[in-house]
Amino acid sequence: MTVLKTSLRNFFAHKGRMALSAVAVLLSVAFVCGTLVFTDTMNTTFDKLFAVTASDVTVSPKAAKVDETPQGGVPESLPASALARARQAEGVKSAEGGVSSSNVTVVNDDNKNMGSSTGAPTIAGNWSDNDLKSMEITSGHAPRGPTEMLVDADTADKHHLKIGDELRTIAQTGDFKARIVGIATFKVTNPGAAIVWFDTPTAQRELLGATGRFTHINVTAASGVSDERLKQNVTRTLAGTGSYKIQTAKENADENRKSVGSFMDVIKYAMLGFAGIAFLVGIFLIINTFSMLVAQRTREIGLMRAIGSSRRQVNRSVLVEALLLGIVGSILGIGAGVGIAVGLMKLMGAAGMDLSTRDLTVKATTPVAGLVLGVVVTVLAAYLPARRAGKVSPMAALRDAGTPADGRAGRVRGVIGLVLTAAGVAALFAAASAKKASDGSLVLGLGVVLTLIGFVVVGPLLAGGVVRVISAVLLRAFGPVGRMAERNALRNPRRTGATGAALMIGLALVACLSVVGSSMVASATSELDKSVGADFIVAGNQRIVPQAERAMENTPGLAHVTRYKVLDATVTSPDGKADDKGVTAADPTYADDLRRTTTEGTLKAAYGDDAMSVGSDYAKKHGVHVGDTITVAFKGGKTARLKVAAVTSDDSALDKGARYLSLKTMEKYVPKDRVPPNQMMFAKAKDGQEKQAYAALKRSMEKYPQYQVRDQTDYKKELKDQVGQLLNMVYGLLALAIIVAVLGVVNTLALSVVERTREIGLLRAIGLSRRQLRRMIRMESVVIALFGALLGLGLGMGWGATAQKLLALEGLNVLQIPWGTIIAVFIGSAFVGLFAALIPAFRAGRMNVLNAIATE
Hints:
The chain is of the alpha+beta class and 856 residues long. The chain has 25 helices and 26 strands. Pfam families: FtsX, MacB_PCD.
């Protein structure tokens, strides 16, 4: 009880300092809990949607997959006879055929895409009784003919659609128009898909290109019949009539959930990773806070030991303070985490993904995880200061002497830090020398961890030299005030090292990602300049429909147009090894559009009859040479034996590993209805007509907004923008760690000011003005911030340069250091230091001189 009272008294005696440390715990716990609540809410939203939309039993073609576009562009389908037989199964109350396709685009009269802006699909289908389980027609009526359609209310609101508006649907089988005759509202949350419905004959004809076929059959069980029993009955009835996938409502929902599960996991673990970085930075803040509080209470600890307190009791007193800090910060963080989740939901709503707060999901494990994580991290971070406090002898504490082991511990720490750093550098060197990117990435991860820990441990040793260099450049011009700021930063190297390390972690990641991002853009740009001969590239998030292909081919001013298709196929090498990575079919002009280097043969020869090319890595692995025969089994087609006419170099990021053959060869072995749409298309302008052809091609493709027309300049800019957007998002998440690091600087300076109260009073007494005092503290903060920035940026550039060596194995050969970003971050760190010093400097300036001098 005495220990608890002492801990509570000390906790509240330093509540301002504890509050800053609690904010670090709060932010970290909030990010973890916010991530868990946000992803759990998204899962709940999808689960409800899948559960409501699934029928008791669903029958679909065996080849149909939820998360894949069919090779032919038209959904896999089953005959109406299957529907008739399913209705005859025992225990069936009703069965109806459904038509659904996500390979569509819906546009208005201005050719504006009516789909989602978040990448969610546009789905077209037939209106059926099964839709009434999840939808309610709130305006107008269901479609009754070929010129009528129904749209979902979310899409109507987003694009200001109303009954009577005419929309054009672009499908693989052709374009067709229909007027909106009704609007349907979801009974559950729709995460963002745009959905349109037609009557059944129209959906079959326009989406499947054939009448009397369905993409699936919805079967409803009679009263008292379980889904499992119904599935068995339907399976028995359909046996021998075709190849079908028959699922219960639960199985269908699970398959749909799995299709979005990988995407959800990426979001979840990426955000938790950044939360972990914030926790790591917060550890330095907590260690510094308790180290300084322990140092300031040295005499008090000595008195406690002198009157009979044991080492264990002193140790326990400090840990109880940390426990209180962890509990308070974690509880507040859990509440803030729910707020962050709601904020993320609103942000996603603004971007086009609808998530309702009605589905807000806070599982019991979330607050428990937040509380345990926050408390455990805080107590572990406070363990070293607590242990140090317990080791202080009574007599040494009463005369304010440090422990005899301090010097020895510093030397041991330095040796350990240097060993770890050297091991990390060796790992980075090994990663840069790796022959395979997959092998090198593991060694790179080890090198990153070792060098980071090594720099953290060796930080106090580096602080002396680095701070002196920074001070010589920045502070000497400020005379005595600058020299005092330098001495203050050097007074406790361990404290300076820990404070700088907190900032170092975030900035090291910023520098590393900046180098990787800039190198990727520079490499891709260089590759485009060197390898791409086409003037224009047309591609989008869907394969190119035939009508768009014809519009491109009829564009004036083009010397040639190249079709490019990706086919599903099983490829068997001469040594008998097979893989399912498929092949690429293109027009012979592709050899001019992409200037691939060959190690054997010529690429143009690969476009001959019954010929193909392979990549150099594949050729090396399987011992393939020009003249060898490879077996290609086309999905939905025949099996071909093709001669290798070329081996293309895989020292490239463009089409790395692609296996080419001609469209003519493909057509011999793949039925017309199984030939896939073009993945993308390329074009070359006639000599001297580049500008006119570019403008004409833009006009030709206006009717198809799902595709983008780019020349090489556009392509480079888009690549740079995409990488820039990704980096900005990552920087935004890393901002959390940097905020925690700033709090660490604030806390260190605030406690340092308290520690130096008497010294500050004496300086003021001998003539140091308030302005000079504040300037001294600000300069000290700037030096600490720049120390962390210098270490972080240097470390990050080393990581980034090593990562680029691995990327070079994938064809990204250019290393580019973004000096503009690096310099901006370094200068920004100085402003971070200035900002962090504002409050401590202000409080120091307001000290009463006489009271400060009288402080013991």
